[in-house]
C-alpha cells in the first residue's frame, strides 16, 4: 500500500469513538442485562453490530480490498467467514455430520471465505444474506437449549462454552475490522 488515507471519525463528542454515543445502536438504556445468558447474548449482539458498522458506507470494491498484504483478509471476507463459522457451530451441537460449507475451498491452499470475497455487489449482497441467515439459524438452535451447562453434540460442548467462543470469534474479528477499515478509508474508532 503506497497511499495512506487520512484518519477520521464521524464522532464529535469523543474523537476516539466510531460514532457519537447518541447515534450508537449498541448503546442500551444503561441497564445491564439480568442473568448470564442475557449478558452473553447482549455481548454477542453488540459485536455483531460492530462488525456491520465497520462495513457501513463502503462499496463492493472497498469491502473486498485486501488492505494488509500478504493477508487475504478483507471486510467482505470477514462477513463471509463469520457466516461460515456460524454454520459450523451448529454442527458442534448436533450428532449429525457437519453441514456443507457455504464457501468451499477450491484447493488445499485456498480459503473459500476470503478468496471468494470479490468486489461485486451480488457477492456482497449474498454474504450479508448468508450471515443474517446463519446467525438466525444458530441462534434458533441454541434457543432450544437455555441451560448454559447443558452439553451438546458429539464433543459434548457446553452451551456456555459455545456462547463464549462465539463472542471471542466476533471480538477478534472486530479487531481485524478496525485495522482493515482504517486502511480502506481512514475511518477509526471503537
TrEMBL record:
**Record region (Disordered):** 1-36
SUPFAM superfamilies, per database record: DinB/YfiT-like putative metalloenzymes (SSF109854)
Give the residues annotated as coiled coil: none
Which residue ranges have biased composition labelled Polar residues?
1-12
This chain belongs to the protein called DinB family protein
